[in-house]
Specification:
Radius of gyration: 34 Å
Bound molecules: 2-acetamido-2-deoxy-beta-D-glucopyranose
Strand order of the largest sheet: 3-5-8-7
Length: 279
Amino acid sequence: MASTEDKAAKQESATGWKDSFYNPRTGEVLGRTGSSWALILLFYLVFYCFLAGMFALTMWVLLLTLDDYVPKYRDRVPYPGLVIRPNSLDLSFNKSDPLKYVQYVKHLESFLQRYNDSQQDKNDDCPPGEYFLQDDTEDMSKKACLFKRGFLSLCSGLSDTNFGYSEGKPCVLLKMNRIIGLKPRGDPYINCTVKRDTPIQMQYFPSEGRIDKKYFPYYGKKAHESYVQPLVAVELLLTKDDYNKELPVECRVEGSDLRNNDERDKFLGRVTFRVTVVE
Ligand SMILES: *[C@@H]1O[C@H](CO)[C@@H](O)[C@H](O)[C@H]1NC(C)=O
Ligand SMILES: *[C@@H]1O[C@H](CO)[C@@H](O)[C@H](O)[C@H]1NC(C)=O
Ligand SMILES: *[C@@H]1O[C@H](CO)[C@@H](O)[C@H](O)[C@H]1NC(C)=O
């Protein structure tokens, strides 16, 4: 008894299902007539065209308000990281074997090409100690302050083309990452220390590792095309006693409001690298 009822129900639901897909009596497909379907399709077509149009319009308006020269939306100016050249956090070489340090020397030499007199003579000799503000100049492209590699004296690669590496007194160049609009307060300078008991003699170029305010603010890649970052060179005046040891060096930017002790970012305003010289 129950089984025949089941059968009937099954048959009914089967025809019901078929009918719901296409009902030959009314000519409905999935419960709707052809014209009803056509209307729905038309509605969605118009609806999506409208959405696409809205999207395109808002994008267009947004792009109109953007300026190639100035980034528009920035909530605050971030702090810069500190990086070194040669681009290695583990400088290790044999001072008697040029093959072992030639990579560092080549790297420094090519990095300093932009600081050649021939390049920097095009830039301005700005007054020291003050920001080089050009906010209200008509011209979209900004002028840059010159920084000649000669400022790095013994680490310029001009007097000593080996940057001290052949004498076991290697030069390391430091620079801050470019941050648009950054204006460091105070008088920033670089201070390097070797983390061990006996200190190591170091020499800074420019003197005292100063970073002049005139190289700030930076106005961005497109506006400030000939901008070069100010550099600080530190020469580690190692002696025989310092050879064959791994020396951990830490450099920080100090004397300003720039952060150099962030817990999470150990390259924010500071950098740590190792130097090993053998002879
Ligand atoms: C350094 O290079 C010199 C000259 O090639 C070589 O005599 C010396 O053994 C090297 N020192 C080390 C520690 O490899
Ligand atoms: C930069 O100066 C160095 C040393 O005077 C020279 O060898 C090099 O060719 C110069 N490079 C450019 C691009 O002027
Ligand atoms: C450089 O840093 C060391 C260690 O933090 C500190 O003792 C020294 O006074 C600093 N030198 C300068 C010139 O700030």
